[in-house]
Design goal:
Order of helices and strands: HHHEHHEHEHEHE
Number of strands: 5
Number of helices: 8
Strand content: 5-15%
Shape: globular
CATH superfamily of the domain at 32-51 and 60-70 and 113-231: Thiamin diphosphate (ThDP)-binding fold, Pyr/PP domains
Pfam family, one: Transketolase_N
Organism: Streptomyces griseus subsp. griseus (strain JCM 4626 / CBS 651.72 / NBRC 13350 / KCC S-0626 / ISP 5235)
Helix content: 25-40%
Protein name: Transketolase
Domain Transketolase N-terminal: 31-219
Strand order of the largest sheet: 1-2-3-5-4
GO molecular function: magnesium ion binding
Amino acid sequence: MTNTTAATARGPRAFPDLARLIALMTGAEKHAPAAHSTLDALWVLYDRVLRVTPETVDAPERDRFLLSKGHGPMAYYAVLAAHGFFDEELLPGFGAYDSPLGHHPDRMLVPGAEIGSGSLGHGLPLAVGTVLGLRAQGLTDPRVWVLIGDAELDEGSNHEAIAHAGPAGLEQLHTLVIDNASATHGWPGGIASRFASAGWAAVTVDGRDHEALHAAFTTPHPGRPLAVVARVEPKS
């Protein structure tokens, strides 16, 4: 592993007071449950798994993280600030006209953001395309992670991406599904079975259990993409 990316062997750090950071964002946010449902999974990813730092956001060898569930970005902003991608002094301006921290992340404005997001169903297809683009450049080490919500699986674009990625053997692709029971249709046998039926490695875990999340995130899956379904409390 080169020193341009963070190592995966690091142990867990103390879970910071991310609630305090989120509380600094006082803009008119209508998707607070969407943000809080992602908090633990995002922390474990950035603290123990993703090989990207504020210094390596443009390094070709970095891991890519795509937030498809961009309509509730407060937890994402808090985690980025906690890891030094930008100063937490930006957080109180969340949602303001002159703030880089909008209600949907803008990759041109938010340090560390790979995509502009918020519209349901876009992130997973973009992640598939990112893996294919990396392959075309001969970059087979960087991993691509995308976080989606269970309700996004109502969108046909996601089913097309799932159906392609498994048979194509996109081992660099990792999908984190936050399951807060908000999907309209669901899937017989659970969400993980949807991915498994298309040739993915798939596991379901408690989305608040940091050790279980880390074990799932680092599950070996040679020759197949990985889906981690993180169950959290139902959306109220």
